[in-house]
């Protein structure tokens, strides 16, 4: 079983005093000009990441990204590559420890035959109808497609901008993705399963 502590540094990612693992994680990132681009993270450590995407940031440019299984990351472009860039990650020690644990899990997911992180199991609510409240107080009827302890996919007629703060039920969160019929929300805090059951089941 692979652990981040004994994984070798990849040749395409700068040495940052952390060990990196090869991954294949989809996400989106935003440049300083607020343009957003789809990306795939090819390699990652708690201190840096190698992204493939069409929007190539300038060296030193601040990047904010939302990556599947990892959540929000931010940092600055370290080096440009032919199809993307590598970036440093700015995070607290607690966040880096959490990221190291997530990367260890991702590195071993296939070996352990774990199709999903059970901490983020998707739940289909029995009563999907709810109200989404935007940070400016506007309220919209919505339908919850599915939930996890860390977020929700919501069918809704409006498209709040990415990174907009919203409230679903009693849970605060942030809009992290748009799709054809709605939005994906990342909760501000990981929820308890009992809380979700009480609110939506």
TrEMBL record:
GO terms for molecular function: cyclic-di-GMP binding. SUPFAM superfamilies: PilZ domain-like. InterPro entries: PilZ_domain (IPR009875). Pfam families: PilZ. Residues 117-198 form the PilZ domain. It comes from the Bacteria. This is Pilus assembly protein PilZ.
């Amino acid at each position: 079983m692979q652990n981040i502590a004994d994984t070798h540094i990849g040749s395409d990612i700068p040495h940052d005093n952390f060990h990196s693992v090869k991954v294949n994680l989809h996400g989106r990132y935003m440049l300083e000009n607020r343009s957003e681009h789809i990306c795939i993270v090819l390699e990652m450590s708690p201190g840096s990441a190698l992204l493939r995407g069409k929007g190539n940031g300038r060296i030193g440019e601040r990047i904010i990204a939302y990556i599947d299984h990892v959540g929000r990351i931010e940092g600055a472009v370290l080096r440009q590559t032919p199809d993307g860039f590598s970036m440093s990650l700015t995070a607290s020690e607690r966040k880096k420890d959490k990221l190291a644990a997530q990367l260890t899990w991702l590195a071993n997911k296939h070996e352990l035959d774990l199709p999903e992180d059970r901490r983020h199991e998707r739940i289909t609510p029995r009563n999907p109808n709810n109200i989404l409240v935007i940070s400016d107080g506007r309220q919209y009827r919505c339908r919850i497609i599915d939930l996890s302890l860390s977020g929700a996919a919501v069918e809704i007629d409006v498209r709040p901008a990415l990174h907009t703060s919203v409230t679903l039920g009693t849970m605060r969160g942030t809009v992290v993705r748009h799709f054809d019929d709605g939005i994906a929300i990342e909760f501000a805090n990981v929820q308890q399963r009992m809380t979700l059951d009480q609110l939506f089941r």
